[in-house]
Specification:
With about 45 residues, this protein is an all-alpha fold. It contains two helices and no strands.
Amino acid sequence: MHETLEAIQMTSRKPVDGDLKVYLSISSLFLVMVLGKLPQIIA
């Protein structure tokens, strides 16, 4: 499992990879914020 993950990371070394990581981190952060405030919105 670990070797395949490293192989995938090595093959996915493209210029898009960096932007995709930034997009994923921002979207996950936004998702956490929305889920954190969801009880306040419902209440």
